[in-house]
Amino acid sequence: MPPEELAAILDRRPFEPFRVFLSDGTVYEARHPELVLLGKRSAVIGITQGDNGTRPLYERNTTFSLLHVVRLEPFEAARA
C-alpha cells in the first residue's frame, strides 16, 4: 500500500476507525488517527484496550511494513 493512500484515510474528517489486515493474517485496529505514525515504507500503530477518552493513550505499539497490507476495513468503535 502506498503511504499516501493510508495518509488520505487518516486525514478524513470525521475520522472513521479501521482495521488493517496484513498478509500473514494479523489484524490491527486503528482507533484514533493520533495513534498511527506513518512512514514511507512502514507504519507504527498504538494498540489500546478500547476507547480511553478524548486523549488516546496506547498500551503497546507495533510496526508493520506497508508492503504487507492486504486491505483496510472500517468498523464501528465501541462507544463508552
Keywords:
80 residues, mainly beta, SH3 type barrels, three-stranded antiparallel beta sheet, 6 strands
Detailed description of the structure:
11% of the residues lie in helices and 38% in strands. The strands form 2 sheets. A 3-stranded antiparallel β-sheet has the order 2-1-6, with no helix packed on it. Strands 3-4-5 form a 3-stranded antiparallel β-sheet, with helices on one face. A hairpin with a 4-residue loop joins strand 1 (18-22) and strand 2 (27-30). The model has no long low-confidence stretch (mean pLDDT 91). It has a single domain, classed as SH3 type barrels, CATH 2.30.30. The protein contains 1 helix and 6 strands. It has 80 residues and is mostly beta strands.
Topology:
Layout: H1 3-11, E1 18-22, E2 27-30, E3 36-38, E4 42-47, E5 60-65, E6 69-74
Antiparallel strand pairs: 1-2, 1-6, 3-4, 4-5
Helix content percent band: 10-25%
Query: What are the low-pLDDT stretches, counting only 5+ consecutive residues below 50?
Result: none
Mean pLDDT: 91
Strand ordering within the main sheet: 2-1-6
The geometry reads as globular
CATH topology: SH3 type barrels
Report the major sheet: 3 strands, antiparallel
CATH architecture: Roll
Radius of gyration: 12 Å
Class computed from helices, strands and strand pairing: mainly beta
**% residues in beta strands:** 35-45%
Question: What's the CATH class label?
Answer: Mainly Beta
What count of helical segments does DSSP give? 1
Distance between the termini: 32 Å
Sketch the topology as an H/E string, one letter per element: HEEEEEE
What is the β-strand count? 6
Query: Total domains, how many?
Result: 1
